[in-house]
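New here. Invent one.

***
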Amino acid sequence: MTVPLPPAHFTGDDIETDYTFTFPFFNSTDVKVYFYQEYGPSLEFEGWLESPTTFGPLTNWTLDAATKTITFTTAPGPTNVIGMTADELGYNIRIARVTNIYDIASTFSGSTPIIGTDVNTNFEQILYAIQDINAQYISGATQGATGPTGDTGATGAQGIAGTTGATGAAGAQGVAGATGSAGSTGSTGSTGPTGTQGVTGVTGAQGVQGAQGVTGAQGPAGSSLTIQGSLGVVGPPVGSGSTTGETWIDSANDAFVWDGAAWDNIGPLVGPTGATGAQGVQGIQGATGVTGAAGPTGATGATGATGASTVDALTDTVITTPVANHFLVFDGSDWVNKSLADTKTILGI
């Protein structure tokens, strides 16, 4: 009879929590679980690491011996298990068996009978242990992780210097220097005064107003309205009216009347029209007055004199031997040129 051999391999996907294997075992403590993951201070190592039953809340597991099923508290996978990757075959979960060889299942003494099942049990224990060692050797189930890289070896002897390379091509010509800045522009002379505006012509006399036309006949009386009050905003009112004829005056003095289905804007409300007086005889319309002639255009004012082109030429300046860094300051009667110190004295600084 062919007996399934350990170990069993699976690929955790962060979804499945139950993993069932087929190989037999003596004790539940002989069943071991390994994860393929990166580890070390900087995750510089990679290999199969044992995950005990109570290693941590994300990797705790239990064994149902009857169904040979491992159940994890949290579904293992690259997301839920820190550093979990996969071996060259794509597996990241390994369920193996490590049979206890230190406690023999059955012992015999000179006065006790040898029972066949006990002998078979002892041989099965040895067989399982041999199978476990063989599986460990072939699959690396309990093989230790790769150790850290050894120290770098000594530097080898200096090689022979190569021949000198050819001279590189001449570099490109440097960029030309920037052009010097242009000299400052002289100050612009003052604008001459604007000429006087011409006189406006006389407005013609207004024509005589015509007589008022005949007043029209009074319209029919409107339907009864019930004024409820005024609105603080432009209508219509919000919602429906309660009765036909309900009326509200909005902020624009327009009246909104509920006709039973909608609000009608009937415009501003006015009081009742008084009785119409007897119509008088229409007067003769007066003739339209003659439009007055347009006044003559005023004469163009004389062109102002050309403004001074230098500061000294102004009428209210007195310039005396100007030098660099002089300031133009008003001394109470004229604008004069002064040094910085004199300017501070005049300004009281």
In short: The radius of gyration is 57 Å.
